[in-house]
Amino acid sequence: MKINAKILLFIAFFVSSCSENQTTATVAEKAEKAVGMVVTANPLATEAGLEILRAGGSAADAAVAVESVLSLVEPQSSGLGGGGFLVHYDVTTKEVSFYDGREKAPSGATKELFIDENGNTLSSGQAKNSGLSIGVPGAVSVLNLAQREHGNLPWKELFNPAIKLSTDGFAVSPRMHDSIIAYADRIPKTDDVGPTDLYNYLFDDAGNPLPTGHILKNPEYVKSLNIIANDPTAFYNGDLATQIASAAQAMPNGGTLTAEDIGNYNARKRDAYCSKYRNTTMCGSALPSSWVSVSMVMSLLNEAPQFSEMGADDPDNWTLLAEALRITYADNNQFIADDDFVAVPIKGLMSDAYIKDRAKLISRKGANLNIEAGDPWAYQEEQSARFGKDATLDNHGTTHFVIVDAEGNAVSMTATVEGYFGSLRMAGGMILNNQLTDFSFTYEDADGKPIANAVAPGKRPRSSMSPTIVLDENRNFLMAVGSPGGRNIISYVAKTVVGIMSWGLSPQDAIDLPNMVAKTDVVRIERHRAKPEIIQALRDFGYDVFESEGEISGLSAVVKLPDGSLQGGVDPRREGTVGILYAP
Fold first, then answer.
1. C-alpha distances in angstroms, 112 versus 1, 117, 258?
2. Range of the domain at 250
3. What is the pTM of this model?
4. Rg (CA), the chain
């Protein structure tokens, strides 16, 4: 298989940065012994996942431990007060399953959710930092659903790492400290502005942000963890649900979320979406996820002019990727939403004929500056009314992790509270999400056409989270990958998949490549990671290039090598680590 041959040539002598679990063994010895792997955005979460794997736990077991720890040590990004998408590979059946833990709008949500009494649309900050933005959390339910089907260990034992860290305390990391400082002026400090639980948690008695290294304990979270560990349904039907609803409704700027809304929530298992890239099968999360857009990027690249063998060193290869991204984002903006509420032309978007026609927009001669949404409805039998131009905003408070257990089962999970520190409200020691700001703030466009991603009671907002698992031609596990980053996730994941599978890079080197985000004719690329000739080539191709100082991706990836061992990569833009489970 072509991609395995390329990967083998590069990585026979390479091992990515790993956690303190590494020894001084040679590179070859490490590669041979890497039979399980955990890659997360925080070393404490990585260690929690490894602890579960060492105890005989499965990838699904380890995911519970990882996310319950991330909820504590990376509260600016994800947590049990938020939600997420989990994609699972079963090594026995060779099946990929999707578990949907996306938050839902409360029954009291209306299309005027983010419209004030004067008919004006709220600013992103006004909407985010309020009870209006809080959806029913799905993280506990989705983790429990996946673990019930694929777990080896008792549910209760999976929370021990998080309980210990919450009880004994953990050192505030540099990234968490920086996030507190960044949001210091927005976190309510007095009751007349909003609930002050988060301020009391993240600031000392003198009103200073907690410094790096401060040992932070969370006794309220310990209580919540014990409740969830004993009975996961109690999160949705007991005192915790009441606490969450009360925090959401608290004035000023209270929302409508009720304990009944929380009690009615259930995560769901759905068929994963799958498509072909070269001679592999890529699988990921279904709607309302935007994973179909990752699939579309890769499918367009199947049909477009092919990459040269120079890989990441060829500027022309970057322009091909940029064009595929721009076409994909145009369709994503127009069509992706919760298909329980609106008709989405998913068959058309994923059809070979539609992909072939859209790929005709890609040329080596120059940028196509007139890319608009296509008409995927024309490529399927089912028809529906056309939707208007989207008006959804963008936030970036999310995390991603990948796990492969000793048996070969794998998890790729993206989890989120939406923006940094979510709604800036807490309950039970947990950050509560601001997920409802992932809906369009307006419900129709300037022409009066309805917007697919407009808010409605019980609806799940569109998400860019795109956890991905890749299989070889025999449906054996080949790779797990994903990233946080809001709408940019599509670009981050596609770049990494291309780097590994088409440009022959190790997962670490693919992640290290400059992130390039191409949504319009403005292309953003990391100044300090991109070679000058690549930046100039993008300009010469016809793009308005913005050289960013950095991107907020948090990519993680695990690749299975031809010899059966594993290799991981983690994003240097965050604090993540690669943890290895060694062969006995």
1. 53, 10, 18
2. 2-269+392-515+551-582
3. 0.93
4. 22
Q: Tell me the sheet residues that pair with 557.
A: 481, 569
Catalytic choice (398, 399, 437, 577): 398
pLDDT (tens digit, 9 = 90+) per residue, 170-195? 999 999 999 999 999 999 999 999 99
**CA distances for 493 relative to 15, 25, 571, angstroms:** 21, 31, 12
**CA 274 distance to own-chain centroid:** 18
Instruction: Give the list of residues 6+ apart from residue 275 with CB closer than 8 angstroms, or none.
Output: 281, 282, 295, 298, 299, 350
In a domain, 510, yes or no: yes
Could you give the C-alpha distances from 584 to 35, 37, 151, 564, in angstroms and in order?
9, 14, 21, 15
Q: Transcribe 255-321 into DSSP letters.
A: ----HHHHHT---EEEEPEEEEETTEEEEE--TTBSHHHHHHHHHHHHHSSPPPTTGGG-HHHHHHH
Residues 6+ apart with CB under 8 A from 235: 80, 137, 140, 141, 224, 227, 228, 241
* 318 assigned to some structural domain: no
Sign of CA pseudo-dihedral 533, 536, 540, 546? positive
CA distance linking residue 126 with residue 188, whole number of Å: 12
Q: What's the CATH number where 458 sits?
A: 3.60.20.40
* 283, 96 contact by CB (below 8 A): yes
Please state the rounded mean pLDDT for residues 412-432: 97
**pLDDT value for 388:** 66
Instruction: Inform me whether the pLDDT recorded for 151 exceeds 70.
Output: yes
Give the 3-state secondary structure of residue 498: helix
Dig out the tokens for 414 from the structure. Answer: 């993206």
Q: Is residue 282, in this structure, part of any structural domain at all?
A: no
**pLDDT one-digit tens code per residue, 524-581:** 999 999 999 999 999 999 999 999 999 999 999 999 999 999 999 999 999 999 999 9
User: Six-digit token pair at 376?
Assistant: 């995927």
What does the mean pLDDT of the chain come to? 92
Closest Cα to residue 234, out of 121, 141, 327, 333?
141
| % of the chain beyond a pLDDT of 70 | 92
For 208, the token pair is 């200073």
CA proximity to 130, closest of 421, 379, 412, 384: 421
Active site residue 392: no
The candidate with the shortest Cα–Cα distance to 581, out of 432, 404, 396, 445, is: 404
pLDDT in tens, 45-79: 999 999 999 999 999 999 999 999 999 999 999 99
Q: Are 462 and 288 in contact, with CB atoms under 8 Å apart?
A: yes
State the pLDDT at residue 392.
61
Q: How confident is the model at residue 12 (pLDDT cuts 50, 70, 90)?
A: very low
Residues 6+ apart with CB under 8 A from 224: 80, 235, 240, 428, 429, 430
CA distance 48 to 38: 9
Q: What is the pLDDT of residue 369?
A: 87
Q: Mapping DSSP to helix (H, G, I), strand (E, B) and coil, where does residue 526 land?
A: strand
How many structural domains does the chain have?
1
* In contact, 580 and 21? CB cutoff 8 Å: yes
CA dist., res. 127 & res. 278, Å (int): 43
| Assigned domain for 444 exists | yes
In this structure, what are the phi and psi dihedrals at residue 134, rounded to the nearest 5 degrees? -85, 120
Res. 117 pLDDT band, cuts 50 70 90: confident
